[in-house]
Amino acid sequence: MPTPEQMIVAAAQTELRPLGLRRHKRTRIWVEDRGWWLLFVEFERARADTRLGVGATFLWGPIREFSYDYGGKLYWREDTGDFATERPEDGHVWVQNIRHVRDDQFAADLDQITGIARRRVVEVRQEIGTPADVARSLSAPQSRVGATSWWHAFHTGAAAGLSGDAELARKHFDRIRPDRLAVDWERELGRRAAALSAMADDPPALYRRLADEITDTRAKLGLSDTPLGTPPEPAW
Predict the structure, then answer these.
(1) Taxonomically, which superkingdom (predicted)?
(2) Given CB 3.0 to 4.6 Å as the disulfide criterion, which of 70, 74, 141, 158 pairs with 56?
C-alpha cells in the first residue's frame, strides 16, 4: 500500500502536471516557471496535517526560497468545495488542513484539495498575467495576504516599473521609509527601493534595471533562459 506521502505526490501529479507544474526536487511543492515569476502549489506539512497554499514568488528581487508574494494558504468548505485565501466569517465551517486517518478517507480529501489547487492555479494565472495586473492587484488593500508592508510596497513598485508606470513605481518605492527600517534585510530593501525610485524620471532605464534584476535572479536560481525572464518592454 502507498504511504500518505506517496498518495500526496500521486494526487498532485495527476492534477498539476497537465497544467505544466513540476515537482520541485523531492519537496511538497509544485512549480511553474512564468518567466518573471514562479507559480507554485505547496502541500505544507503541519505536524500530522497537510495544508494547501497557492501563490506567486516574484523574481525582481533576491530570493532564497518560495514566498507568498501573492496568494497564500487556502481555506475551503468540504461540503461545497468553495475556497478562499482568508477564512470567511459566514457561519459555515471552513477548514485548512487534512489528516490521514484511513486510506480511503485520505484519498477522497486529496481529490478535493488537489482539485482546489488546480482551480486556484488557473485563477492566479488570470489575476496576475502581466506586471500591470500585479501592480493593480497589490494596490488594493484587501490583497495584502502573507506579506510585510515593506515587501508589499516593493513588489507593487517593481510591477509598476515593469509595466511602464514609473510614477506609481516611485510612489510605492518611497513608502519604504529609511527612518523606519530596523533590521538588516529592511535596510537592504530600503537601499534597493531608493535606488529604483531615483530612476523613475527615466522609465526605460527603470524597466531595464528591473529586467536585469530578473535575469540575475533567474541565473542564481539556475533557471533556464526560456521562457524569457522579463515581460515585453512597454510602449513609451
Answers:
(1) Bacteria
(2) 70
Residue segments in the chain with a per-residue pLDDT below the cut of 50: 142-146
Burial status of residue 122 (CB atoms within 10 A of its CB: 0-12, 13-18, 19 or more): exposed
Q: Find out whether 176 and 165 touch, Cβ atoms under 8 Å.
A: no
Cα 45 from Cα 69, distance rounded (Å): 20
3-state secondary structure 173-224: HCCCCHHHCCCHHHHHHHHHHHHHHCCCCCHHHHHHHHHHHHHHHHHHHCCC
Q: What is the pLDDT of residues 190-221, one digit of tens each?
A: 999 999 999 999 999 999 999 999 999 999 88
From residue 120, give the alpha-carbon distance in Å to each of 54, 83, 149, 161, 196: 7, 9, 24, 27, 32
**What ranges make up the beta strands (E) of the chain?**
22-23, 29-33, 37-46, 49-58, 70-73, 75-76, 83-84, 98-99
Contact by Cβ (8 Å): 98, 110 = yes
